[in-house]
């Protein structure tokens, strides 16, 4: 029987790849998107994760379409990169509100059904910079590092109910966002990647699929890097 899955920020990049990977494995997948159009072949729900009301409505629509949500992938995120002396306070608080507090809103709403079912999978999409840091991304790195502490606390809270909570930390991934970087910027990053190349979104998605599967039933509180070795030592 297909599981009901919700992927936030699932209309492009890593989120879309995760949604397609889980759908191909037989799950009934709903994706949230903030702007644009829903991806073809997937049940799309317009949702801004900075709004608790939007998040609640997105879950309600996914539940009405596919049943109680059993797997949640908290992927929605934004960047507003700038060096700290130039960073306006709203650039910091907006990134925290979307990436970290948004993950809190999603996980809190997900718990409601999962606790009743006494099972569930929550996977947070963080980043290699959560642990290594990155100049110009203090807001983003703080939001993604906070996600790890949040997830590990939840893993301890929810484990007795059969709910696992894990984190994936992608490194440099081929997406529209990274394609916008200048070639010399890309090369500067790749020279620090032992595997010498960017990841595909599908490579991240397959790790998420494992963590959401029965094969990972005894994995919780884990931080799994998919970064080609970029974050080693952190």
UniProtKB/TrEMBL annotation:
Q: Which Pfam families match?
A: adh_short_C2
One GO biological process term is: fatty acid elongation
Q: State the Gene Ontology terms under molecular function.
A: 3-oxoacyl-[acyl-carrier-protein] reductase (NADPH) activity
Q: Where is each Ketoreductase domain found?
A: 3-176
Task: Write down the InterPro entries for this protein, in alphabetical order.
Answer: KR_dom (IPR057326), NAD(P)-bd_dom_sf (IPR036291), Sc_DH/Rdtase_CS (IPR020904), SDR_fam (IPR002347)
Q: Which PROSITE patterns match?
A: ADH_SHORT
Q: What is its EC number?
A: 1.1.1.100
Q: Which superkingdom does the taxonomy of this entry point to?
A: Bacteria
**Keywords on this record?**
Oxidoreductase
Return the similarity comment: Belongs to the short-chain dehydrogenases/reductases (SDR) family.
In Swiss-Prot or TrEMBL terms, this protein is called: 3-oxoacyl-[acyl-carrier protein] reductase
Supply the source organism for this entry. Answer: Sphaerisporangium rubeum
